[in-house]
Amino acid sequence: MPSGDGLLIRAKAVGSCMSAAQAQGIAKIAKACGNGLIDLSQRAQLQLRGISEATIAEALRRLDAIGMLAPNADAERVTNIIASPLAGLAPGAFDANQMAAVLAGELQRDATLRALPPKFLFMLDDGGALSLADVEADIRIEAIANGEVAIRIAGVPDRAVFVAADEALDVGLRFARAFVELRAQHAYAFKRVRTLVEALGAEALPDAAGLTMRVSKESRTIAPRARIFGPQRCGAVAYAGVGAPFGRWRADELAAVAEFAQDEGTGELRLTPWRALLIVTPDNEAARRVISRAQDHDLITSSNDQRLAVIACPGAPECPQALAETRAHVMELAPLAQKIVGADGVGLHLSGCAKGCARQSASPITLLACAEGFDLIENGGADGAPRFRSLTFEAVMRELSARAAGRPQ
Q: Do residues 172 and 294 both lie within one domain?
């Protein structure tokens, strides 16, 4: 799609697994056909920036050659799946990557499902060590403690359909098909399940799907950052968690991480919705060597890195909808943001517009770009009610400094 710095294209991954060779290929395409910048999105997808009309055909050809191009535009648009990062490696109730492959095939085969809106998202959580509890998804398929699988829908946190693992995908697809039908009946007004639930009530979608939901509060806890970044071990699996500031990778950085995976690891990387890459390694010592090499590139290798306390969308001029730059001062804001972080380690969200694409959930402070500075929203998202309007950057710094010192005004 068009953006302020050229065309944006996605290297389509189905599931969380990517080979080192694929990562190297993406880095080469970004340099040869784009501006050398690659975003790892909160949907665990790599997006190449700055592609031109002159290079788009070659970029797509090369993505296809490494197996990271959807069959067609319709398939790309509806194949939106996040799977457990360690699927198939660490113990889980089901293999989320295998389920993702089956789901992708069904989404691309069934003409009814191709009518899903482009942001519609499935989440597959195998119940393993790295929980996806903080991922906002329309349909959530997640393992629970008693061996069953819970299928939940956005906007209904206290109820779920419970089935065996081999029935879970069928239930999820029934919800998706029912959403398509209800959406058509209401003039396509609903772009996400949450908006449908808000308009029609919690029972509308399960009733349309012929499903019964039982009372059950979500029990999974958010994966701690301490389990994501740095050298890690999960049962028999060792890995090194590495990130780039604000999810923005340079082609040389991605190429270097791919090299680490080939030299020190198993040749496999895992994509995560926390804008981190996990390099799978044969043992702990290899994971520590990967982290040491990543530090030489100034990548994020620790959960204590100040840069993790800030989430910022690309902003202007890259995004044509953004009203201002969002990343010009993030390094000045990061130390203050770290002092006001919430439970998930985020203290500040900078959004170029009210869509809040970089983060859908609430933050201690959200700064929303406006014509004359930033609106400041407390404990809310980009669509929340501002506490202050049209603050200058200097005023923003004063407000954050006061909150960091425990004396908000």
A: no
